[in-house]
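[audit] Reproducing an earlier prediction to check determinism. Same input, same settings, fresh worker. If the tokens differ from the archived copy the diff job will pick it up downstream; this log only records the rerun itself.
[audit] input (616 residues):
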Amino acid sequence: MNKKLIIIGIGIVGVLLLWIGISIYPDWLWFENLGFSPVFWTMLLSKFGFGLMVWLLLALIIGMNIYAANRLNPRIGTGGDFKVADDYVSQLGLSSATLKTLVTAIILFLTFYIASKGSTQWDLLLRYLYQQPFGSTEPVFNRDIGFYLFSLPFYIFIQNVLLILFVVAALATMGWYLKNGALKIEGDFSRVQGVPPTLPKISLAENAKKHLIFLGGIVVLLLTWAYRLKMFGLLYSAQGPAFGASYTDVHIKVLAYKVIVLVSIGFAVVLFINAFKLRAKLIWISAGIWIGVVLVLGTGFPILVQKFIVTPNELAKESPYIAYNIDYTRKAYNLNKIKVVNFEVNDQLSAQDLKQHDVTIQNIRIWDERPLLQTYRQIQAIRLYYDFNNVDVDRYLVNKQYRQIMLAARELVVNKLPPQANTWVNRHLTYTHGYGLAASPVNEVTSEGLPRLFIKDLPPSFEPDLRVVRPEIYYGEKTDDYVLVKTKAREFDYPKGDKNVYTTYQGKGGIHIKSFFRRLLFAIEFLDPQILFTTYLSPESRIMFNRRINRRTNSIAPFLDYDGDPYLVVSSGKLYWIQDAYTTSAMYPYSRRSHGTFKKRWLNYIRNSVKVTIDA
């Protein structure tokens, strides 16, 4: 038996190590290659640690309750007041061992499921631990804004998790009592024709009742905490004329929630007392008072005040709170720092005005991005496997003048290769990168009606001020497949007439794949055995993946929100991608929420905090 356990243990450890190697090691190599190894470990340990903390807490709570259940109510068996023949579980033919296995399996599933969900909220923990004060407060509770953005979401999450944990613990305890015979569901499980079904009778041993009442007291305390947090949640109320706490919220609901908190604490105390000396009547009276207070003060009374006091005098009552909404919305969106300048309207345009503002006139856009993109594709794609994803607009110094330039990256799309050329070697070793770009001023047209191109063709020809000496594009908006570079196969660089020009990757990107273990690892990672068996790899070979810009940035910093349109920049002869990244929140007090384009969710605070730069 011991040998079997040792073998099973070794097998489990081996499977876990293999899973860690396949799932984590490639990502760590990728982060390390980019110089973000500390970021990788911070995110990994936060996810694992937070999930483990939730699991251990749930396991501890359930374990303590099952231990208490065994101590308070050892197996009753067939004696006592319970009739096993009338028990639903007995009628279903479930033995004690089967029921124990079933309950244990359900408990394990729930604990791991809840823990996995908890691990996805790792960023809440980090924001809470490393929060910084904003230096300004909201007008109702006079707390720093940072409390609402960093602490309150964490408290709400912890409260919800604890509530779920104790509810699951109560259900698990009931399941254990069912196994021990302290809880029985009695009645006729069979269906006899002509005999109406009867409601089952639930019988519970006294110690089991006290135990579950004690758990009920803890649940009520957690609901008490929920009402305390709801007070702060009033600052996000959408019930009034403006977003945020209104007159009724501030003057009625805050007081109502305070009373509910006190009554809830009293109800919890009653439950704890009855867990030692059971008096069912006192519990029912306390529960009725608690429910009544919640319904009357939490719902009914605020509705009456709103209808008969606030609504007839809405302007006078709500004006201060509308002012809060305007003020804090401006602060949250950083609109309070806008400098307002009045310009006198003058509709008399002279030749002198045109001469004075000739730079502005020369940058008036006449090209629209959509038809220009189609034009680029027709005259500058050169080959079917090249494509332009979209057109971006930027400013460059050309002939000592700032000019608005429209430009688009020429990316390589391997799916557009001819069928006979769509081989594994071509997709992953030969056709590894796009090449160059098309760029034109926003306001110039040739005699043929086409854009005047400042950068064009393969290899690129360009204006002196828009020099491009490294036109290769290994990362882009349409780039998706992994590629292997510095291999024995030649990399396609660009077409030249009826011939092709080849090159070798000169950068530092990608992960060394020289060892057999790494080749095996990435073969499993991408489900591609060719990586393991190809003879084209050399000691200098590298594998490049996560090459799509959005996927790349989201992998490195998933806690930021990204603009959906990275744009290409020409600088010092090289091509770079720039993507705007934002810090956002939906928890800024009194700030009006808007449905953002980031992950299709609501937000009411935003800052353009980060500019991401990627060497193409």
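[audit] rerun output stored. Observation attached for the diff report: Residues 37-72 form the longest helix (36 residues).
[audit] end
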